[in-house]
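Annex B. Sample input.
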Amino acid sequence: MLPTNEEINARLDVARLAALEAGEITLRYFQREDLEVELKKDSSPVTIADREAEQFLRKRVAEHFPDDAFIGEEFGQIEGTSGYRWIIDPIDGTKSFVAGVPLYGNMVGVEYEDRSIIGVVNIPGLREYIYAATNQGAWHVSGDAQPQRAHVSSREQLSDAVFLACDVPTFSQVGRWEAYLQLQAKARLCRTWGDCYGYLLVATGRADLMVDPIMNVWDAAALQPILEEAGGTFTDWQGKPTIHSGEGIATNGQILEEVLAITRAAPAG
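Annex B, continued. Sample output.
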């Protein structure tokens, strides 16, 4: 059974506003000299800002949609009965956050029967965000301006493209270093404007390609509807449009096949 527009729009409204409010929570701690940073079991950093933002998002979703499932990076999963699942990354780019760099984001995705249908990426340090729902377009907001329709670029060749990556050593960690080198060599420009901010740049046409060799579902859930509604693609390294493969590629669509010719030849380690 397909979700109704009323159901989707109600969740999109909550997702968008909740992401903005979660961003305000993180800004209370941003660039504070006394911020304590802990390391999780996987050696990734976590702070009180991550935890408070996720607790807020859990509470807000439960208030509006108590029957929806929920999974977040910091506090695990809650089962639901509605067919909808909220997938949350309270701070995507915690390494940037703890370094005082404003290229971190709050990510809210909503999945319906294993398909991501709503996405919000908020960059509170830049007062910029983007949101989308299936068949409703992607919309970009900067500062106090009105939402503008987001569109990917029209560049047709990788040689003209801006290629973004996040943690470059992760390519080597999973045996995909050669793929990174090929993409870097063929692209016009390569930069590490990473985490969710890089995907926002692709969705708004300022970059053309973002590649991650390692992703969790909460890193990916908000991205697929945003990229697709902006006219681009979000796939795994084999070209499958999914958030569940543990990897991700965002493109403007024009260069997808050229990129896949490289990534398909690079099996995960």
